[in-house]
Amino acid sequence: MSADCHNCKQTRGMKIKHAVFGYGSLISTESAAKTAKNLTDNPFPCTIKGIERAWNKHSVKGMTAMGVQWAENGTCTGVLYPVSEKELSRFDRREIGYDRQEIPIENVDRIDYLDEEHYDSEEHVLFLQAVAGKREDVRIWVYVPSNPCPPDEDHPIAQTYVDIILQGCLDIHVDFAREFIEETKGWNPQELLTDEDDDSDDEDIDDEDGEVAANQALSDENTSDVIAWVNDRDRPIYMRADTDYSQKEGPQLDRLLRRHRPEFRRRKKRASVLKKPKGHRKRPELQTSNQDY
């Protein structure tokens, strides 16, 4: 996607000192612009080695937000936004409960299946040059949850939040959206169990009266059946939800999710886990798009 003349004038002669890696809602340029309105609307799509995306950040809003975790053999697709130090401080304020950590520039790579036109803007050329030259003066930042936790019934995955991420992914490429769905961990909370969790279970089994082991086994059995994912399109949990987009494109997004994520079939309606407030009125249905993802 070529940058228009207006954007070319803005970026001509620019230098990149800092870049923020967007891997969740920040993939959506509209969502990112709510924090820093002067951001480019054409961020740099890339793959980062050494991290993996996961549903692992509990929000005070009562949902689980997107996070990443360091993983030696992991990869994560996302976008890079060149930012000023002032804009960087704004993202620090947005990403409460996350630690800003630096990514080595040698871990950044372009995405093979994207055509050259995705990388023809001046900003993208600068990123490609920085990556190829492993320039240490370009600092790449990622926000990592300070206290990672998997989704649970009190902090479910909110569909309106998923919709915002998919909106950004589909603006880039349908395969970009597919990778987000397939490679993100935590749709099933069991995916986020660690080796330490398994070791603690083994120790419990040796409890002298067996009571702890029995309780743990019952807990594991119940947990394995819990998919903490709710359809909140009628009453959004996510504070930056785009209700018009969710209502219009929801059927197509659901088809994409159903195709690539089996847990989708166990998604619940928000009304089934939370009481409706008094005076609740169902939103009028909007005409859906004919586009099939």
UniProtKB/TrEMBL annotation:
Residues 20-147 form the Gamma-glutamylcyclotransferase AIG2-like domain. It comes from the Eukaryota. Residues 193-207 have a biased composition (Acidic residues). Gene3D superfamilies: Gamma-glutamyl cyclotransferase-like (3.10.490.10). This is Gamma-glutamylcyclotransferase AIG2-like domain-containing protein. Residues 187-207, 240-293 are annotated as: Disordered. Residues 257-283 have a biased composition (Basic residues). Residues 240-256 have a biased composition (Basic and acidic residues).
